[in-house]
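Deliverable D4.2, example record:
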Amino acid sequence: MNVKIINRSKHDLPRYATEQSAGVDLRAELEASIELKPLERTMIPTGLSMELPKGVEAQVRPRSGLAAKHGITVLNSPGTIDADYRGEIKVILVNLSNESFIIEDGERIAQMVIAKHEQADWELVEELESSERGAGGFGHTGKS
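Output generated by the structure prediction step:
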C-alpha cells in the first residue's frame, strides 16, 4: 500500500525495523528537550503529515520499552489518525511513573500501525439475536 507522506522533521521517514514488524516508530521533532513530570501529559510533534487511502487508519500505540522501563505511554491508546486528516501527527504522551522523564529530539516515542477498517451501516432493530455469552462482560468469566 502506498501512503503519501510529508516529512518536515530533521529525521528519516518512519521505517519497519524487521521484515515482519507491524508498526513503525514515530520520533519526536523537538527544538529542545521536554521534561515530562510524574502524571503530566504533553503533545509531542513528529513533523510528519500523511494522506492515507480511504478505508485505512493509522493507530498510534505506546512503545513497550518506554512503558515497561519508564512508565511513559500514549494517553489515548490507540490513537486513531483518520484517512481524511492532513495535519501534523502528534503523540499525546503521559508519564505514569514517579520520576520525571526527559524526551529528546529524535527519540522514538510511539509506534504507528496502518490498518484497514470498514464503516458500519446502522440497522435500527428492537431486539438482538441471543448468544451464549449474552450481556456478560467486564470479567464475567472469572480469573481461571
